[in-house]
Amino acid sequence: MKRILTRMTAVATAALFLGGCMSDKGDDPNAPLPRMSREDAQKWARHFTGSMARTARAPISEKSVRPDFTNCVGKHDEVVDDGRFILDYSARSPLPEAEHAAAVKRIREELEKRGYAIDTYQEMKDAAQVVLRASSPKDDFSISVEAYGEQNSILYEVSTPCLLPPGVKQKEI
Question: What pTM did the predictor assign?
Fold first, then answer.
């Protein structure tokens, strides 16, 4: 039974990562939301930031991990009480300034290979800063990678779209 649950979680996580459970809701505020529990969303975000850290060749400092769950807010500031949420998840990897640009470039190349849109990529040598912003148009989540010289670390951030927990009836706006 444990093996089946583990496999189901892996499939659900892969579906979110690959876009299988996301839909383009367009302008319909009552279109079905993608479903995922807070626990599974956090596991997915942990896996995704861990993958970026492995690509950067800089392990995440567990002390730096910050999951932040917030309510979904509609286009006209609507908040519906049905359990829907957004997860903003961040983590840091210690890495010397001299390795920042190469590490962030590797992440950018990997994201491009996987079909993510690179929204921003900047290397600011004077400020010893590298910034990467990417998104998944199909999945509606965003990715941010920032490296600042004086901090000798890389900051990874992922933000999910509005998610609805499994088994909960979606209320209309």
Answer: 0.81
